[in-house]
TrEMBL record:
Record keywords, A-Z: DNA-binding, Phosphoprotein
Name of the protein: Transcriptional regulatory protein TcrX
Gene source species: Streptomyces griseorubiginosus
Modified-residue entries (4-aspartylphosphate), positions: 60
PANTHER family with a match to the protein in the record: REGULATOR OF RPOS, TRANSCRIPTIONAL REGULATORY PROTEIN TCRX-RELATED
OmpR/PhoB-type domain residues: 136-233
DNA-binding region per UniProt: 136-233
Amino acid sequence: MTGGETKSPGTVLVVEDEESIADVLAIALRYHRFEVMVAGSVREALALAERTCPDVALLDVMLPDGDGRALGRELRARTPGLALVFLTARDSPTEIVGALGFGDDYITKPFNIDEVVARITAVLRRTRPADVLPQRPPLRYGDLELDETTYSVHRDGRTVELTPTEYALLRFLVRNGGRIVPKEQLLRHVWQYEHTPAESTVVETYISYLRRKLDVLGPPVITTRRGVGYGLA
């Protein structure tokens, strides 16, 4: 890196079949120094992902040759560390919960382009933290072990498959030991929300995902203090 060059914050794979929307997204992301690849279909997206290694995929849910969520699953299977952000015109709770079931964020159409850039930046910040060093020892709490080098999680010696956002949430709870962490603090530190909307249910949704994956391997480990927040038992 020389002179006034600035390192790119990451590579984004934009999958959107409406050219006007794809162009706006690409222009805005490139303005903020992201490397951008654009595909208009599932087929094009898979071909691009085969040749390159994006950090985050921004996926329209409704594509001409398939479903963006199915594409997300395929991309995540090929690249487990890939962050997924969905673009959707559907804003029902069922659609949102379905998207968050394995993705890292969702954005409803019509959208504000500055919000899209901010959401992608926040997703990369929590899924690819800059402060993690290869020499860092594992985080431990009870029978939980989080490897800060490989971002892998084990409970009682058994592997727990987590999405990047699930990992970030569990890591923050582990770092806070047995303390109850307020919901607003989780939104700020895990999701990087500057303003925390009272109606947001994203924390509750991801806590339920973590419980589903952790509780099958042992006693319940996440506790709820109603009206306050969450912690580890």
